[in-house]
Hints:
This protein is α/β, with parallel strands linked by helices. Helix content is about 40%, strand content about 15%. It contains 10 helices and 6 strands; from the N terminus they run H-H-E-H-E-H-H-E-H-E-H-E-E-H-H-H. Helix 3 (about 35-50) crosses helix 10 (about 190-210).
Amino acid sequence: MVVSDRYHRQRLVEGIGDGGQEDISRAHITVVGIGALGCLSASMLARAGVGTLTLIDRDIVETTNLQRQLLFTEEDSHLQRPKATAAETHLRKINSEIQIESHVEDVTARNIDRLLQGANVIVDGLDNFNTRYLLNDYAVKNNVPYMFAGVIGGQGNVMSVIPSATPCLRCLFPEPPPLGSQETCDTAGVLAPAIGIAASCQTIDVLKFITG
Length: 212
């Protein structure tokens, strides 16, 4: 395999090298939720050369998204483009060498096996806990790493769930919090730089895992 020159600076990093870059190019990462976290994580993963990216989100781009969802443009908002397909379009312009597929739908108990099939790592860009627990349970059942992140206001949390090696979301919090009991971006606001920090931590954990 000929490793593209575009990843030269990445391959120079200790622990990556040509072998690590080949691992990255063979990886299939699924990003669930293409909001602020998902946009940044998907962008960094595409730029890193992840071989296959699957993007899942049911929502459309709105003007209020543009303050922090860095893949989207005013045109996306004006045309009310679905986030997943808009992100796919922009990511293809960033890296034409990788495979990108998008799904404009919710992740539910009925379709999760289909949507997450083949994923080596699941990246959480969600804003609701019920779907997060669905991802967590799928990850534990199928032995797939699940990278959680969440940001409200100027604070965030990041947690990597490696089945059989680390605690999972249910290990720490057995049940999702009751609806309406947690602050959201709609009620407490959110700062883009805080999202950048959380997404960067989330993405580096993905790259660390897939490169061993």
